[in-house]
Structure formats: C-alpha cells, structure tokens
Amino acid sequence: MAEDDSPVLFGFICPNCKTDLGNATELLKHYEEEHSEEQDILKSLKDIFGKAKKRILKQDENNVASPGASSSSKVQPVSSIITSEAVNPQTIGSFKCHTDAFKRIRNDRIERFSAETNKLIIRLDKLLMGMPHDPVKKKAHEQAVVPWLDGANVSRCPECTRSFHLARRQHHCRLCGAIMCHDCSHFLNLQTAKEILMGPKEQELSPPSEQELRLCIHCYRLLENRKLMTDTRNCKPLLAEYYEILSEFHKEANKLTQQFLKMSESLNAGETMYKLSDAQTLRLQIGKLAENIDTTSRKIESFGRKNGANISELQLRLQSAIRVATKSYLCTELLQLPSLPTEEQLLGLQEKRRCEIEQRIQEEKQSQISQRTPNIRTSVSHLQTSKNEGGATLEEGWKPENAQMYTSEDPMIQQMNILRGYIKQARAAHMYDEVASLEKNLQELMEEYYKQEYQKEDTFVQENQLEHAEHFS
Amino acid sequence: MNVITAVKLYLTKMTEESGPGMKILVMDKQTTSITTMVYSQSEMLQREVYLFERLDMISAREPMKYLKCIAFLRPTKENISLLSKELRNPRFGVYYVYWSNIVRKADIKTIAECDEYESVREVEEFYADYLAIAPHLFSLNIPVSYQDLAWDPVELLRSTQGVTAVLLSLKKCPNIRYQSSSEMCKRLAEKVRDVIVTEESLFNFKQDDITPVLLIVDRRDDPITPLLNQWTYQAMVHELLTITNNRVDLSHVKDISKDLREIVLSPEHDEFYAKNLYLNYGEIGQTMKQLMEEFQRKAKSQQKVESLADMKNFVENYPQFKKMSGTVCKHLVLVSDLSNTVANNNLLEVSELEQQLACQESHSSQLQNLRTLLNSGNVRHKDATKLVMLYALRYERHSNNDIDGLLNILKKNSVPDSFIKMIPRILKFRSKNSRLNETFDTQEAVVKITKRFFKDLKGVENVYTQHVPLLRETLDDLIKGRLKETTFPFLGENSAQISRRIKDVIVFMIGGVTYEEALAVHNINCSHQNIRIVLGGTTIHNSASFFTEVQNATANLPTTRHDNRRM
Ligand SMILES: [Zn+2]
Ligand SMILES: [Zn+2]
Ligand SMILES: [Zn+2]
C-alpha cells in the first residue's frame, strides 16, 4: 500500500486499480465489488478497519464512549520522563542583584536626612534641660537654645503664603526658629519629646504633660519619623512573642523527630544500638511538644477574637493561617511517626538479626581466620578520642558537667564512672546518639577492665598492663 | 530545561533569603498567577508565608512591623509607583523586593529614594516572568496578540520580556530562527536579540557545545489545530470547560458540592492528573474505574474501625485518605461532565468530520456529510461554525466550493451573526503564504497525508486523532536538520557556520498554542533522549479563546461575506 516505493497517489486509492475512491467506506465497497477474488487482501483491509472501529466504538463499563487511540497508551506521564536533569539537577536560573546599588543611593539620601534629625535631637535635649516654668524665662531659655528669625521683613507665612496681621500673628518654631502662622504650627507634647529622647520605657509612670512645643512642619516630621522608627524597633506585640515560642517548639520537634526516626528504624531492624525505653521516652516527649505546639497555635489564633479587640482583618487572617499551617504540620510530621516494636517483638527482631549476622560471619569465617587478632590497643585509643570529643562536639544545648567526684583510685573504674555520668546526662538531654556511642565505649572499657583483672594474676603480662595504664594517666 | 522547576527555584529562594519569621507575599495580578501555577498555598504556609496580598488592592493600612514582606512584582510603571508609596509609609518591618524581569536603573533610584525608613533589605531580578504550565509548556496569558494582524505594541513588549525571561531562567543563550512569512515573528526575534545584546553580561552562560535554538512561529500558519475537538484528558477539559491558571469552573454542574464549584487541576499537586493528562477519553474512563475501586477498598477497610490498631491505622492514613477521596470526587465529576457534554452534543460525529476536513482530500463527499450534519440540527452552533470554518480553510480555492450554501444553512439554523462572521474572519486570519496553502495545493503534500492515513489504519491512530499539528512537522524537520532556511532563517547570523545539531529547543508561538501541540512536543521529548523542547505561546487556546483572538485580530478589516468568493 502506501508503504510501497512505487509512486504514491493521493486520496483513498485502491491498491489494485489505483482508482481514487474518496473515502474509506467507498474504498472498502469498491474493493469488495471489483476485486473480490483477491480475498486475502480484502481480509486484511477489513481486519484493519474492524480493529479501528472496535477501538473507536468500544464502550467501557463507565458508559464512556471511547474514541481511544492506541498511540496514546504509549504516552508516558510527564513525571516519568527520565532526562539528563535527573542526573544533573536543574540549578536556579540567572538573577541580578541590585541591593548594593540600591543601598548606595539610599544612604546618600538618608545621611543628609539623619544628620538633620540628629541636630534637632540635640537641640530638643537642650530645650528640655532645665526648662523654666515662668513663661518669660521660658521664652528666654528657648531663644537662648535656638535663636528666632527676625520677623520684621516677613509679611506672609512661608507655608501657606497668607499675610500676617493682627488676627494672624507670627509664631516661631522652637527647634529651627523659622516663622509660620498658627494654623501651620504643629505641637509636640513634652511627654512625647521625652520619649523621643530617652525611649518609651524610662517614664512609664509620669502622666502626659500639658505643655507642648510649637514646631514647623519640617521639624515635626523629622521627629515623628524618628519616633516611629524607634517605636517599631522596641515594640514587640504579643503575637510576635508567641510566634517566637512556637518557632522554638517547631525547631525542637524537628530535632527530636529526626532522632526518633533514626532510633525507630534501627530498633525495627533489630539493632541493639538504642534502648527501646529511650525511644519510648522520646516519643512521649514529642507527643508533649505536639501538645504545646497545638496549644500555642490555638492561642495565636484566638488573639483578639473574644473581646472584639481592635485587631485588623489582615492580622486575623495571619493568625488563622498560622493555625492552619500548624495543624497540617502536626498531621503530616508529628502524628505520623512510625510505631515502635513491643518488648517481645524487639526480642524477636534482635534474634532474627543475630541469626542473620551469625550466618554471615560463618560464611566469612573461612577466609578471615588468619587475621583474627583482637586489637585491644586501637579499641582503647578509640575510647580515648571519643571521650575527649564528649565535651567538645556534642551539639548545642548539652555538655557533660564534671560534677561528681569519683572515689575509686583505679583509673579505669574512674573512667567508667565518668562515662556512666555522661550517659545519664546525655539521656536526660535526649542525645540518644551520644548515649549509644558512650554506652559502646563503656562496654569496651568494661571488657578491657575485666580482661586486665584477669591478666593481673598472670605475672608475665605486667608490661602490657603498664602500657595500657599510661593511656589513662 | 524544566520551566516549572525554574520558576519554583526562584520562588523557593525568595522565601529562603528572608530567613525565619512570619512573612507576607505581596504580588501583582500577573505574578500571582505565576506563583499559584507552581506553589500551592499550603506549601507556602509551610515556608512561613502566611499572607498573600495584591500590591494594587491593599486591604488595610495599619502597620504590622513583625511581618517580613516579600514583594514579587513585574517591573511596570504602576508597580514602581505603588511600591514607592508603600515604602514611604511602610506597613511591614522589612522588605525583600524581587522583580520578575529586567528593571531600569532609574526605577531602582526612584524606589531607593523613597525608602527613608531603610526597610528594604534586598532588591533583585528573578526572571520568573511567565506561567509554567507543565515542565515543557509555558504561557504569557495574553488573550489577544494581534491588532489588525500586526503586533499590539504592548503585547510585543510583554512577549519579548516573557521569552527573554524563559531564556534567562533556563540559562540559555540561543541562536534565533523565525518563520520568515510572518513579520511579527521577525519583529519579536529582533526584540529578543536586542535584549540579549544589551544585557550581554546576563546572557554570559557557560553552555555546552550545542547552541540552543529559539524558534519563533506564528499561529496564523496553522489556524486549523485550535478548531479541532480534542480527545486527550487535559485538552478535552480545556476545550469543553476551559482551564484558567490551572483552575476549572464547575459551577454549572447540577447539585455540585460547594468545594467542587471551582477545582484546581495542577499536575504539580494532583498525582492522578499528572499521570493521566495525556491519556485519551476511553483510557481515562478505565483509569477512573481503577481509582474508584482502590478508593472503595481503602474506604471499606477503614469502615470497621473496631480495635485500637484499626483506629491508629486510620489516623495514620488519614491525610492520604482525605487527599485521595478529594481527588476521586474531583475527577469523577469532571469525567462525567465531559461525557455528558460529548453525548449531548454529538461530539464524536462532529469530531470525525472535523478530522476528515483537516486531513483528507475528498471535496464532494465531505461537503455532502457536512450538509447532512448541519441540517440534522444535532450540532451546537459553535461546532457548526467550526466545521464550516474548516471547510472554508480547506476548500477556499476549490472551484466547486459551496461556502455560500453552507453559510445559508448556518443562517437557516439561526446561528448567531457573530459566529457566521468567523468564516470570512478565519480566511483573513490565515497567513497568505502559509504552508497550509501548500499543504492543500501541492500534490506532494497530499501524498504525505495519504501515507499518514494508511499508516493510521494499521492501528497507530484512529479517526478522531488523525490530525497532526503543523508544529510537529516543523519540529521533526528541525531535529533532522531539514528545516529550510528560506522558511525559517537564522536571525542575523552567518548561518553557514552554524551547526545543525539540535539539543535544547525553545519554541514560541505568537497567537497561542494548544494542548494538542503540547502533547506533540511531549511525545518528541519522550522519543528523543538527547533533545529537550520547551513550548510556549502568548496563551493556551481552546476554540472559544481562539474565536476571540481571530475576532480581535480581524476587527478592523473589511469582512464582507463575499470576500471569500474571490475566485
Ligand atoms: Zn500658614
Ligand atoms: Zn522648625
Ligand atoms: Zn504658616
């Protein structure tokens, strides 16, 4: 048919007589009528049409008419394409940073701005220092700090350009001495002025002052900006405080969960590195944390909802969002920890593992037999280094305290007692990896100790013992 | 070469740079769409982004200084002035500002001078300036690109920005090829090249030895594809229900539950959808059934919650359980709505004739079938219009064509005038020297069709999916190094020295792409280990949005009914 290399014509062409039949049905009919003797070709043609038709008209159980194309079953889902990116993960696209340029421009401007503000602050400080109560003396004091502009030649207010007269008198800004009318004056409460100078916490108890300072708009704005900036720097609303607590819980929970996953995996594999009781304690601890997280987030959600406090709609949305995020965190991270084996199951698992290991050892024994010398020396030096690391490398939050005095004279017994103390402290701080490695050390130390006790009776190995003792001095 | 990953990486970095603490994400209309395409709200919540706000629709003025503000904005004039206003009186403690494209130095200065409270910590350009729809598909959400069949200047700028952002986010500095028959392709190609030249330092990537290709094509060369009914899941949903920014409106469905009135169809967050979006209608029904069975099996096992162990099991499985039941409901509603639409509107019959018109050469019988179907009255006005449009595109130059007769049938069936006008409009819209004309005029091209049809009969394709979009052929030619330089020249290069080897290709179609074309590109990517193609368009069309595009493109051109009787 069309696959032949003979010149191909267009349309629905009969493969025998090359007539164009226009469409598939016509072609079939023509074929049946004109070339019925060539049955096999007809059969194959019919087959092809039949298959296509079946596929097209096939109804599946859901009564969905199916114009299925078999080609699409070859279509792979988007996710399954294996690309070179699977090997070399795509990195972030290019980006351009304007921060430095931005800050340069901003600083140029801010410098002028803050120099001016600082000048005003110094003057304000001088004004408030020893401000007399007597109005006449007060005026003199004010003018001594900031000389007032001579108003003789000023006929209009520079702010609003209205002319001065009897009913609209000249006034002076107490911080820059500029002239303005009463309507263009701004007033700074002395109490507020003190807050700007000293910060809000200093005079919590003093009542708001009746006295005010008359300022021009420019000076007023500069001071107001300064106040806003310090206010926001100092004030920390309840919501923010609670959120910080929540974040701390989160951090702690993440840490413990990771630890727990490691332990449960190890226990479920039948390893003896961790103790089941430790894992159980940890699980309880995580449960408690989850409760704390839950309570804190509820608290955050409820701020200002009960007594109709003046809280913006945006903040309410924020509070709800924090709650929603926490809930899904609790569901997906904290409440879905894998389960721990029971004591019995654990014994079974450990037994199974032991058998597996023994079997492996048996298999390897033949080849390893020659190298079987117990390397006491390395085991001891290993113990020492890990002891030294004990204090230095433990993660934040926990350090062994050398609180107890050990009475035994034997350095080895001392060492073992110290280790026991460390283990206790590490367990209390949920540092179970440390517990495991310390316990391993303790185990080795004890084995070594009993070996030595045994050897003490053997006079031929004195030298060896001395050598070991050196390590503990 | 994954645009979803590219956008995600940018957004992830935005949420990380501001460190721990409560955050608000402030966006504009477009960056909101860009963000929601790749990140769900719950994913954002886990990154401590609790609030989302539009810069142009600020809800409250009271300060919330304990919030960190991430501003992700397009560098428009409006945004510059809105952000300046915000910074002069800042509501939030600190600001991290990310522009989705290249921003002018003067604008940086304007904003810096407004930041008297020194609340801005970072100002950066992150080129996530397009909607990533699938790993290999992006859109710019431009509903109409043409103005009297030439560029709308606003959209030329937006397209230039979109295409350069794709290049920058994927770190590609390409050779540019464009469709020579389209003036618009040439303009866009030049604009993109101008950006590459002026922002030389940005485009200075370490690239591997095969230079990527940016191929710019024009929808006007293939007006047929957007007119055809589609039978793969995603394309069907878009054609019959319309997907807007991964969302589908189902409010028309009778007795629909509240949370299904608008559903999200995101391959990033819906595993079922991701697996099945390219399956055809029949297969999707089958998959649906399997999913239901699995769901029922789970649901049943969880009904007998008797022992404590059962309870625990239930709780431990709960999130997946809930997620799964949501997925099942959503797709069940969707598929049954699709099948209603198909059955009620005779779409199988319509589709069969559409495919014949698009792929086969048989004027008299097709005209006959068309008349019969139109006269039967079982066809929606829109489908009737599309069929006549296809006929007109196909047989405009055929000496015996009966476009007038068909228009009369449409009128007799009281098809609205706006629809009837689409027939002369589409003929105006189709590019005059498009390959479409060649396809139907030259014998060689028809041979191609015949060959394909017979191949199809061997079980590869069926009557509803015979059509292969022109883009597929263009890309096949490109890959084989056979794409002619007369039809697709290189921009400004001495083409003799350019290697014909192909690895990374970015295709951009002015006037919008379709999901059928997205599938074609996906198939190419699957079958070529070493070739990665990313497809993008001014928008993703279905036939309804394509009608709007054509209508606007030809709005001011004379469209008397007798235009098409030229010969
Ligand atoms: Zn005044
Ligand atoms: Zn002043
Ligand atoms: Zn005044």
Briefly summarize what is shown.
The complex is a heterodimer of chains A (473) and B (567). Chain A is mostly helical.
- Assess the beta-strand content of chain A as a share of residues: under 5%
Q: What is the count of DSSP helices of chain B, taking H or I runs of 4+ residues?
A: 22
Runs of chain B in which pLDDT lies below 50 for 5 or more consecutive residues are 435-461, 561-567
**Beta content of chain B:** 5-15%
- Count the beta strands of chain B: 16
Rg of Cα set of chain B: 26 Å
Largest sheet of chain A: 2 strands, antiparallel
Task: Characterize the quaternary organization of these chains.
Answer: heterodimer
Count of DSSP-assigned helices of chain A? 15
Q: Could you state the order of secondary-structure elements of chain A as H and E? A: HHHEHHEEEHEHHHHHHHHH
Q: What molecules are bound to this protein? A: zinc ion
Biggest sheet of chain B, open or closed, and with what strands and sense? 6 strands, mixed
Helix content, binned percent of chain B: 40-55%
Q: Uncertain runs of chain A with pLDDT below 50, 5 residues or more? A: 1-11, 37-74, 79-84, 373-406, 459-473
Number of strands of chain A: 5
Helix-and-strand structural type of chain A:
mainly alpha
Mean pLDDT of chain B: 86
Mean pLDDT of chain A: 73
Q: Report strand order across the widest sheet of chain A.
A: 2-3
